[in-house]
Amino acid sequence: DTHQLLLLPGDGIGPEIMAQAVKVLHWLRDHRGLNVELTEELVGGASLKAHDTPIRDEVIEQARHADAVLFGSVGDPAWKDAPFEKRPEVAILRLRKELGLYANLRPAKLFDALLSASALKPEVVRGLDLMIVRETVGGVYFGEPRGIETLPDGTKRGVNTEVYTTAEIERVARVAFELARQRDGRVCSVEKGNVMESGLLWREVVTSLHKAEYSDVTLTHMLADNCAMQLVRDPRQFDVMVTGNLFGDLLSDLASMLTGSLGMLPSATLGAENEHGKRAALYEPIHGSAPDIAGKGSANPLAQILSLAMLLRYSLNRPEDAELIERAVSGVLADGLRTADIAGEGDARATTEQMGEAVLKKMAAQ
Amino acid sequence: DTHQLLLLPGDGIGPEIMAQAVKVLHWLRDHRGLNVELTEELVGGASLKAHDTPIRDEVIEQARHADAVLFGSVGDPAWKDAPFEKRPEVAILRLRKELGLYANLRPAKLFDALLSASALKPEVVRGLDLMIVRETVGGVYFGEPRGIETLPDGTKRGVNTEVYTTAEIERVARVAFELARQRDGRVCSVEKGNVMESGLLWREVVTSLHKAEYSDVTLTHMLADNCAMQLVRDPRQFDVMVTGNLFGDLLSDLASMLTGSLGMLPSATLGAENEHGKRAALYEPIHGSAPDIAGKGSANPLAQILSLAMLLRYSLNRPEDAELIERAVSGVLADGLRTADIAGEGDARATTEQMGEAVLKKMAAQ
Ligand SMILES: CC(C)[C@H](C(=O)O)[C@@H](O)C(=O)O
Ligand SMILES: CC(C)[C@H](C(=O)O)[C@@H](O)C(=O)O
């Protein structure tokens, strides 16, 4: 039967890199019998411009019914002073929340061919391959009460609430433990339980779940500030990490940057299984909308293309197609092709289009 | 008249490194006419052991009346499962809160002699010298409501509240702008205003204050996740940074680690001026209590000694003594003396005591 994919290119470089992923999809349809129906919709600043909202309810509905969502990126400086609900970012927040996409899987993997692009010394990052599982529908991003109130003297007070329940912590920790079983068998849980009760509960729940069901996995705990340091000092000590929404936001961006090739890194955000054993899922590059280079045709499309590979593997159960893409990406890198973000000093700089075409050619040649 | 200093060595390596700073104080008293009266008290795990509380009220009172507090570090794994109020860390939290120490100044400065200790490439960190101003008495560390409640079904819910008011943001931003005027004239304000209203208010207040009083300083804004990346990618882009309690905790630890020599970095935490134009102030190393090496005599005392130098400069108005210490520290490093934390592969490893003595000898030789 036909797989329904919803494509949400978004803002900035989103549409440019999505176009390359779409080419890959078309190629798979034409040459590998992939049966997909693609629908494309506006989100973020693009949707604000056209519909005065960062995401329309009907797009949320389409996402709910799709087999998977392939997302580009949102964020546009034109809305930087807009009221809260008129921000491009609301699109991704609503998608996560309303589809229940609670586990964001963010691999930080160093591509050997790009070792020199890292700001860290080769001996510190060579072979780096860690996975951060970030909770994405709870914590201080969504807790109530929230808002800005005006005080009697005319000054203001901004409030947000960090909330985590046993159930919310347990389900995301479960994802981390399961992943660890397929990897190096180690989970590091990160919170700030020495000053926050929500962190104390986090640690307690992860510890209990570990004891009850995952004692074959090695579990350690780390405070978030120490973790930020350890990621710089010796990132290869980690296998799988699991943490809340806010810490995960900072730590996973930090971890990605260690690889020196943000433009290469895909991510998956997964929800609960429904009654048919299917998981809601959204795939997106780790990088943002990069408004400074938008429209120049110079963005790196590989994170978007690799996000598509993850989609094929996890949502459409097509591991061979995923591997075909991943090998093609390794191939073009080995050939020395470089977009500006990963180019060394003397390297020629490929355009978005050239990089996409090169991947297609490699796929065809396999 | 006599300066009253309160010494709070704390846990782990705290007492060992404090002992070296005390030697420096005695030397200054004997040779440079420094008129000080030293009082020493227990805090953290040490106080829990002796008095069943992380800090006694009378110690808070002593701190309130001292000219400055020299703090070691707190944290002891023996209390890792203790209830919240029975944690060593509460000592530093209460001191900050009750003395109104709202601005934590954390320099991340690379010592040229230690360039090779950084995990980052020399070309990325050489000459690094940034200053993070972290708010320390507000935000999610202190906001109410907070706690863990049991839900009807027996599961739990952990809550913390992030709160910032105009006044709290303004006073810490002011410290950052003033510092920038004495440095490179640039402030980067960091929040997560795209998802948190408290961050939105943060940005608004910093922007207004800048416009009204500090338009000679260059102000930029950065989201906290991007900031975590930028600190790895190109940390030298920053001069002064100002941010809330929680982001400041992670980002300042990250920034410190970039230097590769955490054991070298001092910090100051300042409160408001009182009616006599005096500021409450606490000085402490950036590193923690390092329980793994406590009692071994191998800890690096330089961060504690440099914290004393900051104390002399900012609280006792003795810049020459501060410089004397700082030159002595540079001197011992130039001589190649290294404690384990900053030693290269073939380097001999000095003990805590040897390092302290070497600093004294350099001071005497100047
Ligand atoms: C766009 C923004 C709301 C989002 C977040 O903070 O979660 C982004 O930074 C991310 O990490 O996916
Ligand atoms: C000890 C702890 C409560 C403290 C904090 O988180 O503020 C420490 O990590 C610091 O940064 O000074």
Shape of chain A: globular
Element string of chain A (H = helix, E = strand):
EHEHHEHEHEEEHEHEHEHEEHHH
Regarding CATH, which class of the largest domain in chain A? Alpha Beta
Class from secondary-structure proportions of chain A: alpha/beta
CATH topology of the largest domain in chain A: Isopropylmalate Dehydrogenase
Share of residues in strands of chain A: 15-25%
Rg from Cα of chain A: 20 Å
Number of helices of chain A: 12
List unreliable stretches of 5+ residues of chain A: none
For the largest sheet of chain A, list the strands in their spatial order.
Answer: 2-1-3-12-11-4-5-10-8-9
Catalytic activity (chains A, B): (2R,3S)-3-isopropylmalate + NAD(+) = 4-methyl-2-oxopentanoate + CO2 + NADH
Binding site for Mg(2+) (chains A, B): 225, 249, 253
Keywords (chains A, B): Amino-acid biosynthesis, Branched-chain amino acid biosynthesis, Cytoplasm, Leucine biosynthesis, Magnesium, Manganese, Metal-binding, NAD, Oxidoreductase
Subunit structure (chains A, B): Homodimer.
What can you see in these coordinates?
The structure is a homodimer of 366-residue chains. Chain A has 366 residues and is α/β, with parallel strands linked by helices. The first copy, chain A, folds into two domains: 1-114 and 260-366, Isopropylmalate Dehydrogenase; 129-258, Isopropylmalate Dehydrogenase (3-Layer(aba) Sandwich). In chain A, 41% of the residues lie in helices and 22% in strands. Chain A is built from twelve helices and twelve strands. Chain A has helices at 14-32, 45-51, 57-65, 90-98, 122-125, 166-182, 197-213, 224-233, 245-258, 302-314, 319-334, 352-365, and strands at residues 3-10, 36-40, 68-73, 103-109, 129-135, 143-150, 156-165, 186-191, 218-223, 240-243, 266-273, 279-285. In chain A, the strands form two sheets. Chain A has a ten-stranded mixed beta sheet with strand order 2-1-3-12-11-4-5-10-8-9, sandwiched between helices. In chain A, strands 6-7 form a two-stranded antiparallel sheet. In chain A, helix 1 crosses helix 10. The longest helix of chain A has 19 residues, at 14-32. The radius of gyration of chain A is 20 Å and the shape is globular. The two termini of chain A are 26 Å apart. Chains A and B meet through strand 6, strand 7, helix 7, helix 8 and helix 9 of A and strand 6, strand 7, helix 7, helix 8 and helix 9 of B. The complex binds 3-isopropylmalic acid (2 copies). One 3-isopropylmalic acid sits between chains A (89, 92-93, 249) and B (194-195, 225). Chains A, B: Homodimer. Chains A, B: It is an enzyme of class 1 (oxidoreductase). Chains A, B: It is found in: Cytoplasm. Chains A, B: Substrate binds at residues 96, 106, 134, 225. Chains A, B: Keywords: Amino-acid biosynthesis, Branched-chain amino acid biosynthesis, Cytoplasm, Leucine biosynthesis, Magnesium, Manganese, Metal-binding, NAD, Oxidoreductase.
